[in-house]
């Protein structure tokens, strides 16, 4: 739900970041940032005016003139400092994240930490943004490439990783010499803003990093702005497809990482205890609000007998506020998200799936107003049911059955999404076959959430991704730069002229 409200609530305002200054928006449209465990209003976020968005882009454009020429070491040291500041402020960042997003404190630290890894990677930009050189491509001629920044780039982020995903974007964009305009999720922008404060404290010059807030209008303004050269988007397939089409038509480079329906296959030779732990953690952790959450498990053959044990394990998970010790499953981001997930559970029952565990209306003492749904498990799930066809984005696990590994692989490849997948097996041959034949970006072998570390790039296939290059890793260096190829001849003073060359051959 992105509709702004004009209700005045006396909570602190979230600022815009323009030209190195945190400024109050002049907008009349505000939205509350709400603690999803308690409904406490934590802050008000503005929907920036068109003038404010233009000002942010203009400041990034101006800053680019000097930032693009800034030495590698200067850029690199900002991220060395930023990683230190993030480490020093880890507990505070996690607490802020839990308050506005809902996930448990340890998982909030994980959210910050996975972003911190990208900051560490950005500090090594000197080794990443390297061109190529070929000596003597013709007589006295060398050819080399330089990877030059694009200009003003923009990032649009979702609510579910308000630390990690902004950190996927601005550190690598800035490290490669671009300037940046970030549009965080309007549902939980506070930890993102704190990270931006730390980025300024680490030495990011004014105008190099800017932040605007808002929803649809702000995103469309970014897609249309003539001075923005590239956009990184992470969010739902519907919005990502819109952003990709609109911004591409405007001549921008765009990468969109989008929705998912992540399947795991359980082969009966898998280690049962390890597998059931992995499945429960990946399906219900973060209340299922991860783009890499496991939402479908295909039980092959004898492993179909493991359902009661999986249900028993899911029942042991503690549903409570993210700040409570021992909590496994926190609240969903909003009342609307909870209502949607509950509605889908009802549809699942109506569509004929078997409800093995019902997480609707859990009792959560002390958090009676929170947006909680407990772990929910359906078996007998088939394509055509809404719980299978839609991304639920809640703690709901769908179980399906297959007789063979081939059938299970075919099942996954027939789903339109291709974000993440996993296989659980003790057989190298089964794992290798899976790895070869599955058409999904991130593949886990006995790893339920295979999010790559930043030496590699996040990826995705089919409906989960638009654009060729993924976030972080080597691919994002290509995304945020353009290749210039220089062919150079330096004549020796003693070189005798060979006369006029009217051919295309280098002589
Ligand atoms: P969302 O698409 O609703 O929002 C993403 C961004 O788009 C936000 O900044 C939002 O303000 C903006 N937006 C929302 N509606 C818009 C509209 N109509 N027009 C233009 N902009 C709009 O996504 P979300 O609910 O915040 O996040 C959850 C989704 O993100 C899930 O589908 C999840 O799978 C996906 N996700 C994907 C990845 C990945 O790497 N593939 C990672 C995290 C989340």
UniProtKB/TrEMBL annotation:
Its EC number(s): 1.2.1.27
CDD domains listed in its UniProt record: ALDH_F6_MMSDH (cd07085)
Domain Aldehyde dehydrogenase per the UniProt entry, residue ranges: 22-486
Biological processes, Gene Ontology terms: L-valine catabolic process; thymine catabolic process
InterPro entries the UniProt entry points to: Ald_DH/histidinol_DH (IPR016161), Ald_DH_C (IPR016163), Ald_DH_CS_CYS (IPR016160), Ald_DH_N (IPR016162), Aldehyde_DH_dom (IPR015590), MeMal-semiAld_DH (IPR010061)
Top-level enzyme category: oxidoreductase
Keyword entries, A-Z: NAD, Oxidoreductase
Record keyword NAD present: yes
Transmembrane stretches, start-end: none
One Pfam family recorded for the sequence: Aldedh
Endpoints of the signal sequence: none
Record keyword Repeat present: no
Molecular function per GO: methylmalonate-semialdehyde dehydrogenase (acylating, NAD) activity
Protein family according to the UniProt entry: Belongs to the aldehyde dehydrogenase family.
Protein name, UniProt field: methylmalonate-semialdehyde dehydrogenase (CoA acylating)
Organism, as annotated: Acidovorax temperans
């Amino acid at each position: 739900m992105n509709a702004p409200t004009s209700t005045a609530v006396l909570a602190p305002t979230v600022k815009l970041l323009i030209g190195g200054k945190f400024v109050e928006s002049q907008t009349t449209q505000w939205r509350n940032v709400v603690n999803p465990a308690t409904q406490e209003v934590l802050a008000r976020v503005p929907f920036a005016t068109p003038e404010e968005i233009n000002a942010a882009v203009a400041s990034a454009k101006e800053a680019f003139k000097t930032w693009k020429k800034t030495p590698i070491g200067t850029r690199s040291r900002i991220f060395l400092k930023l990683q230190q500041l993030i480490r020093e402020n880890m507990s505070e960042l996690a607490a802020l994240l839990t308050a506005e997003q809902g996930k448990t404190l340890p998982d909030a630290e994980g959210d910050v930490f996975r972003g911190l890894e990208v900051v560490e990677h950005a500090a090594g930009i000197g080794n990443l943004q390297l061109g190529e050189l070929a000596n003597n491509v013709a007589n006295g001629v060398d050819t080399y490439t330089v990877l030059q920044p694009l200009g003003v780039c923009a990032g649009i982020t979702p609510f579910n990783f308000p630390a990690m995903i902004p950190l996927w974007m601005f550190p690598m964009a800035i490290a490669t010499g671009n300037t940046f305009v970030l549009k965080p999720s309007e549902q939980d922008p506070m930890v993102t803003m704190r990270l931006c404060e730390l980025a300024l404290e680490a030495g990011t010059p004014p105008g190099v990093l800017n932040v605007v807030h808002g929803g649809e209008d702000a995103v469309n303004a970014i897609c249309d702005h003539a001075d923005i050269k590239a956009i990184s988007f992470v969010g739902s397939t519907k919005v990502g497809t819109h952003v990709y089409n609109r911004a591409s038509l405007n001549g921008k480079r765009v990468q969109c990482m989008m929705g998912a329906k992540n399947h795991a296959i359980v082969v009966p030779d898998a280690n049962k205890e390890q597998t059931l732990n992995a499945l429960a953690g990946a399906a219900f952790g973060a209340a299922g609000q991860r783009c890499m959450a496991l939402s479908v498990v295909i039980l092959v053959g004898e492993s179909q007998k493991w359902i009661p044990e999986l249900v028993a394990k899911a029942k042991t998970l503690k549903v409570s506020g993210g700040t409570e010790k021992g909590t496994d499953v926190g609240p969903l981001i909003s009342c609307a998200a909870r209502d949607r997930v509950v509605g889908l559970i009802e549809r699942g029952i109506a569509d004929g799936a078997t409800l093995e565990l019902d997480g609707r209306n859990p009792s959560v003492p002390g958090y009676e107003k929170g947006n909680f749904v407990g772990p929910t498990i359906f078996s007998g799930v088939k394509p055509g049911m809404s719980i299978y066809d839609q991304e639920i984005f809640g703690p709901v696990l769908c179980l399906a059955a297959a007789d063979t590994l081939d059938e299970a692989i075919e099942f996954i490849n027939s789903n339109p999404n291709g974000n993440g997948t996993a296989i659980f097996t003790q057989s190298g041959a089964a794992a290798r076959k899976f790895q070869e034949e599955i058409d999904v970006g991130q593949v886990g072998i006995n790893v339920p959430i295979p999010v790559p570390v930043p030496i590699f790039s996040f990826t995705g296939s089919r409906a989960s991704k638009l654009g060729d290059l993924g976030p972080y890793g080597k691919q994002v260096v290509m995304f945020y730069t353009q290749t210039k190829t220089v062919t150079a001849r330096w004549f020796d003073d003693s070189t005798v002229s060979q006369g006029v060359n009217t051919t295309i051959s280098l002589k």
